[in-house]
Design a protein that fits this description.
Elements: E1 2-6, H1 14-25, E2 30-36, H2 38-48, H3 51-59, H4 71-79, H5 86-100, H6 106-115, H7 118-122, E3 127-134, E4 139-144, H8 153-160, E5 169-171, E6 174-178, H9 187-191, E7 197-201, E8 218-222, H10 236-255, E9 263-266, H11 270-278, H12 282-292, H13 299-314, H14 323-337, E10 345-347, H15 348-357, H16 382-387, H17 389-400
């Protein structure tokens, strides 16, 4: 009996639907969902079991689907792409914002009422719970579906997702704000219902997380492999990226793909890359030695005792990283530099070929501007190493990828 816990985070919730897509593909059945804020809203669609609808909503989401206002102006504000003539409009919007007590999120309420099927959600035997905070009573509120009055599900979901910049939500005369002020990742709600196997999706949202006893729980924690953007960054390119990231990050976790940024299903053996590193040109190694301030070492000792450890440091790899993992991190570095799309399943060989086929391989700025007169002792300094990072990594990568 697997349960899913979804962290709040506004537009970062687009990551959740990517995770859901992967879980469906992996055949993992979800018997209960707990969430906060956007995690609660996404949870409702999961309980409703309407993946296509949820995907379509997120894929086509615009700022005006969430709050009232000038669509073009809101887009410019989110992108910080403002012109002089926009500031009068912003001033007027701020006056309205203050006088009305926050952003009007009537469009979001309408979206929920139009697309959520409360009868279907109530007709399931799955567990659904979420968190909000009562300002009137000065206390948090754990809400399970069975405790919500008929026809009021959308209102309670809005209460869970009521950020401080939004107009306050009222239910039966009481004021509510976002549940993230108490518990943005409410694992407790499913644990209390007897769930032992839990998948926690953490989306880098701002909020408090209550501690919980992990004893007896089989926890799977899913984290985004990249930045999900800002809480209110309702931009198509951001949402689409997050949806893909959630999907591929989840597949990577369960299928054991390699890579930090990319999704590599086949990585050649350690011995292959030891041989490739060993074939580096002695003259190139001598230049690298001068670059990092090492003298009087044989090329092979220099490579394995100095150059490769420096690669691990610059690529932020653990000391225990294998040579295959170091090589893959280098290839990923090159792939990111030349702008190769990371959202697909690939192999180390395929990715290396794509990097190699780029022309020129990688442009490294200021390759010739590293001062040669620096004393060797300064060349071990972290600031200096950061300065030569691209030059060092590209030089080794070019050697590694030689035919």
């Amino acid at each position: 009996m697997a349960g899913l816990v979804l962290e709040g985070g506004g537009a970062k919730g687009s990551y959740h639907v990517g995770v859901w897509k992967a879980l469906r593909e992996l055949g993992i059945d979800i018997e209960g969902v707990a969430g906060t804020s956007i995690g609660a809203i996404n949870g409702a669609y999961i309980i409703q079991d309407d993946f296509d609808l949820a995907w379509e909503i997120w894929y086509n989401m615009k700022p005006t689907h969430v709050f009232k206002g000038d669509e073009k102006l809101m887009d410019k504000i989110i992108r910080m792409d403002l012109e002089t003539g926009d500031f009068n409009k912003i001033h007027a919007s701020l006056k309205r914002f203050i006088s009305e007590g926050g952003l009007d999120i009537t469009p979001l309420r309408k979206l929920l009422k139009d697309t959520l099927k409360e009868d279907v959600i109530r007709g399931t035997d799955k567990v659904f719970g979420f968190v909000t905070v009562s300002l009137t009573d000065f206390k948090p509120l754990d809400v399970y579906l069975s405790e919500i009055p008929e026809g009021m599900l959308a209102e309670y979901l809005m209460a869970s997702a009521n950020l401080p910049v939004f107009q306050l939500e009222r239910i039966d005369g009481k004021l509510y704000i976002d549940g993230g002020f108490y518990d943005n990742l409410p694992v407790r709600l499913l644990k209390q219902k007897g769930f032992k196997e839990l998948i926690c999706v953490e989306s880098q949202g701002i909020g408090v997380k209550q501690k919980f006893d992990e004893t007896g729980l089989n926890l799977t924690r899913l984290y985004p492999s990249g930045d999900l953007g800002k809480t209110l960054e309702v931009l198509p390119e951001t949402l689409h990226r997050n949806m893909k990231m959630g999907y591929y990050d989840t597949l990577k976790h369960y299928r054991g793909y390699h890579g930090k940024l990319f999704y590599v299903d086949h990585l050649r053996e350690n011995g292959y890359y030891i041989q490739r590193f060993s074939q580096m040109d002695d003259a190139v190694l001598a230049k690298l030695a001068a670059l990092i301030g090492i003298k009087d070492k044989s090329p092979q000792r220099l490579l394995f005792e100095d150059v490769i450890p420096k690669l691990c440091e610059l690529l932020k790899l653990p000391a225990a990283a294998t040579y295959a993992e170091i090589a893959l991190a280098l290839i990923e570095y090159g792939a990111e530099k030349v702008g190769i799309d990371r959202f697909r399943i690939t192999s180390d060989d395929m990715l290396a070929r794509e990097v190699l086929s780029s022309d020129p391989l990688i442009q490294v700025e200021d390759r010739k501007k590293i001062p040669g007169w620096l004393p060797d002792v300064l060349k071990s300094n972290g600031l200096y190493l950061n300065t030569i990072k691209d030059q060092l990594l590209v030089t080794v990568l070019e050697e590694l990828l030689k035919a």
